[in-house]
Amino acid sequence: MNWPLRISLTIILLTADRNASHLIGYQNNPNTSSFVANHVVEVRQMAFVPSSITVRKGERVTFINRDIVRHDITEEKKAWQSRPLGTGKSWTFTVMRSADYYCSIHPVMKGKITVK
Ligand SMILES: [Cu+2]
After folding, report:
1. Closest CA to 58 of 90, 10, 87, 26
2. φ, ψ of residue 17 in degrees (nearest 5)
3. Near ion ligand 1, which residues have CB within 5 Å?
4. Residue 33, pLDDT score
5. Could you list the residue range(s) of the whole structural domain that residue 56 is in?
6. Hey, what's the signal peptide range on this chain (predicted)?
7. pLDDT digits over 64-88, tens only?
8. Residue 17 in domain
9. What is the mean pLDDT of the chain?
10. CATH number, domain with residue 83
């Protein structure tokens, strides 16, 4: 690969990454044999990162606890809730509607998922 082409591809990849930094990939959906996007929200220093994401209905979100204390992910009206996640643990769910959520252990921690 020549250098100008390699630089162009790098710029494209960096731009794509900035636009969807929470999007880590696609997973095969065995029910539809289509691919479903998988978004990632990390929990770092008592905050959800990113705190707001936009997804399509049926896409998945994985929460990963990168913090040193336990956290959970609780929908505002408790429509859904993860188990408490220790350091390094993750929880994945399929998003069907927009939701505001928080950590029930530390209620100041808040996040938002918007289904477009
Ligand atoms: Cu917490």
Report:
1. 26
2. -65, -40
3. 71, 103, 105-106, 109
4. 55
5. 22-115
6. none
7. 999 999 999 999 999 999 999 999 9
8. no
9. 84
10. 2.60.40.420
